[in-house]
Amino acid sequence: MQKFILLLLDQLSFLYKKSDIDYEQLRSIVKIKFEINSRKASGMLGQSASGKPTSFTFALVIYAVFGLVTAFVLFLQNSALISYGILYSYILVFTIMVLITDFSSVLLDTSDNTIVLPKPVSSKTVFAARNTFIIVYIAQIVLALSAGGIIITFILFGGLAGLLFLTSLILITLLATNLTFALYLGVMSFTSEETMKNAINYMQIAMTVLFMGSYQLLPRLIDNLENFTQQLNFETWMIFIPPFWYATMQGLLQHQIEIAVLPLLSVVLGIVMPFGLMVGIQKFFIPFFNNKLQDLAIQNKEEKSKKTQTVHSAFSPSFVLKKLFQLKPLEQAAYVLTVQSLKADRKLKLRIYPALGYIVVFIIIIFVSVNKNNENLFVDLHATHHYLWLIYFCGFLLNTAQFETSYSENFKARWIYESSVIQHPGQLISGSLKANQMYFMVPAYVLVSIGVLFFWGPSTADDLVLGFFNCSLITLINVWLNQRLLPFSLPEDARMSGNNFARGLLIMVIIAALCGLHYLAILVPYGVSVAIVIFFASYWFVLNKIQHLGWKQITTQ
Amino acid sequence: MYPIRESVTAIKNKTDFCHSKKTDYLTALIPLKMTAAIEVQQLSKRYQEKILHELNFSVSEGEIIGYIGPNGAGKSTTIKILTGLIPDFEGDAIVAGMDVRQHAIEIKRIIGYIPENAALYDVLTPLEFLEFVGHLYGLEKDKTILKANELLKLFGLETSRNDRMNTFSKGMRQKVLLISGLLHNPKILFLDEPLSGLDANAVILVKEVLQQLKLAGKTIFYSSHIMDVVEKISDRIMIINQGKLIANGTFAELNEQAQSGSLEQLFTNLTGTGEHKEKAMQLIDIIK
Prior knowledge:
Number of helices of chain A: 22
Helix content of chain A: over 70%
Strand content of chain A: under 5%
Radius of gyration of chain A: 27 Å
Number of strands of chain A: 0
Largest interface: A-B, 26 and 30 residues
Structural class of chain B: alpha/beta
CATH topology of chain B: Rossmann fold
Oligomer: heterodimer
Mean pLDDT of chain A: 79
């Protein structure tokens, strides 16, 4: 495959040479990047259970399956504008998502600056090589995503529509890559590397939520899709949504849209924008880009030290609140370590924060499922106990955070636990658990509580108190039974090598059991108040057990 | 022990044959009359604050310069400017008679740069990496592989040449980096802590290699913390502190001025970090 792509690239060498790029060097850099990438895992699909990198071919097959499922929207033949609009949106969003998750590191890779730029290679060639490498990869992903769409288009709408679809895909690939580049370069022009990396981190989190959320929400929204696809005319708002530029082309070809100024403008934008962005980036950003990367690599050290200072602030709310937990000295050490890592470790954020975003998805699911058959949403919501889902989802959040904070790329630093005089390492676990409660679960729970009180009324206040203890108890029980892991003591890839299914099942059983008991308590008069006392006592009992865990009882995997 | 003489010969002689036409052409661009290999005037660099303050120095062809200073003094920044990696600076920097700002690519063809951090594509094998580097210099593939193999053997890496470098120790990576900097037979070498992580035998080998490269007429700009090596191999020593050049001369000259006895003593005197004994005693008091 690599050889084929390089051969294809050779045919385009004249374009590079025309742009004053050393093609031989570019080819060499692209080739080595392919080789490096083929030996690494695909970011979005992560690593396989065996810990070995997931092959790119396998990732492509998965993308093709996703794409095929989405391409079925084309069978809604009454509106090419809408059905292609949906498909193109899917491809464009997915492509940008892959670019952000998988290629941020490639685009912002300063190793090129230390390895390649000291050699007699111009920054223009280096940037073009990066660009080419990314576009080739993205093109393969787009092709996999669109394979189903291509076949369906050729069969349903004929050869011309198929060719137009293929042309649109090329334009979408260029648009997606150049949009992402422009976004990165624009952000970088007025920010530091740390801010940039943080911004990318939050984008990655948002994308992960969007990706997972869309698979939950789309089937629920599909009922409404049929009405939506009745939309036949070109509307003005479509001119601002890039996927509709290409959908308009299909609409015009299939004579479903009348030839007018706005649809034609839309077509022109679809053709001009990808190339316009490309030229703009080449002309204005590239020389600045590599210099900036070089500068950033040097500035980085200073910023890191500044960041550490802010974490140590003794007047921060979390510092004051941690006093309320009455932490033992060892717990306090684990608490501070966990809070600092939650604030500063981007990889950890990327593993934990999407779970927080799922609350939003969850809320939408509840609303959609209630609203599906009924007219008066608020009255109907009030009559349900759906808030229990929201409350116990926070238990899932805390458990996720507790699990993830056991793993770190700097896991070898666990020597500090082993070389210190620690009688009850369980206190390290309880300290990190309290940090996760304070830093991660409490803010989420406060938000959920506000929502629950607003939609279901003040009568749910006792449920919220009980829910808080139960959510903590869920994680405590899971730690006690299954996850006696010291904070940041295990390598990241070990997360996937264990018995994930069994772990997931156990946590679901615990959540279901406590949620079920809570529900039963609601049905009994004063049941919730009695349950608060019982579960509060249980919480302290299990916490005390964990605090007294000895070395032999700690799981080391 | 490494076969030192053999290694030096390999680098000195066997490198010449694989220059491409492109390299020869660009080498021809260098002015024939050249007394200073490196010339720096009023060189300054600022990020949030000023890192380099109006540096002035020149390095003759065939000279070995020991460039030393405490952490954060500006050594690496100076080297990055001279190697064309930081284009945005104040003052003038001329390497091989060419302005660094205007002729960065041409300069890069005739210099070798070994960076401070062993930056490598570590999922590659050393042989793959060196072949890639050779390609960037426009060297012929077969000859690059042949030479890379010989150099890997001389540095004791022949059995690991097909292993991925992510399994390598710091010293092994540093050796690969050194080879990559020498592969194209550079006229001027910029070495930023080249001995970092190397074992004792490799350190001896590199010292010998540097001496022999000097005999072959190469100019070497050598930045290091290891004082005894700098003292032994350098023709001239420059000490930088807080971005300012505070000493420039042969060891004998500097020693005569400062009456220090050793480079280490001279360094601590000049950089104001000479209270080590007091600090050590303070540390003992604190841990008590």
